[in-house]
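Revision sheet: structure tokens.
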Amino acid sequence: MMNYELMTTQNAPVKMWTKGVPVEDDARQQLINTAKMPFIFKHIAVMPDVHLGERIDHR
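Predicted:
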């Protein structure tokens, strides 16, 4: 049993330990964009305090 939500992307998967915590749509999009970066190894790990990062835009 997984204790995280798995968000699949076209690139690296995103493992989100955010059960019961709302995640902003903009933060989700930023995670998808970050997963496209060539230096992401196996996955991105997201903790319950996830939020949109300021001054970061990978679009």
